[in-house]
């Protein structure tokens, strides 16, 4: 598995996986749905993200060990097949584990 980190952008239910915030915002090209239209990196290294309306987006990094979630795997008819609870690293290994490359959207409340 890659040296992954977990980020949220705009709201904490939208979690993305990348090796760095720079990889996420520069390598996304709108493929994984970050909503970031442009970014700035200040002289002190502070990263500022902006959406298509020009407003600054809040973002943060999640602790992959301390942050726990429950995923429900469903079939095409939304019937629950299995449930897995674990930290972000465990769940990432179970759902993707880097098979689809980075950056990638890991979870959203809107799926």
Which shape, going by the Cα principal axes? globular
> Which strands sit side by side, in order, in the main sheet?
6-1-2-9
**For the report, how would you describe the main beta sheet?**
4 strands, antiparallel
Q: Unreliable runs, pLDDT <50, ≥5 residues? A: none
Q: Give me the Rg, rounded.
A: 15 Å
Order of helices and strands: EEHEEEEEEHE
Put simply, the count of helices is 2
Strand content: 35-45%
Helical/strand content category: mainly beta
In terms of quaternary structure, what is this?
A: single chain
Helix content: 10-25%
Distance between the termini: 25 Å
Question: Roughly what is the average pLDDT, rounded to an integer?
Answer: 86
Strands, count = 9
Describe this structure as you would to a colleague.
The chain is mainly beta and 111 residues long. The longest helix is centred in the C-terminal third of the chain and has 8 residues, at 88-95. It has helices at 21-27, 88-95, and strands at 5-9, 11-18, 38-41, 47-50, 56-57, 59-62, 68-74, 80-87, 104-107. It is globular, with a radius of gyration of 15 Å. 14% of the residues lie in helices and 41% in strands. The protein is built from two helices and nine strands, in the order ββαββββββαβ. Strands 6-1-2-9 form a four-stranded antiparallel beta sheet. Strands 3-4-5 form a three-stranded antiparallel beta sheet, with no helix packed on it. A two-stranded antiparallel sheet has the order 7-8.
Write the layout of secondary structure elements.
Elements: E1 5-9, E2 11-18, H1 21-27, E3 38-41, E4 47-50, E5 56-57, E6 59-62, E7 68-74, E8 80-87, H2 88-95, E9 104-107
Antiparallel strand pairs: 1-2, 1-6, 2-9, 3-4, 4-5, 7-8
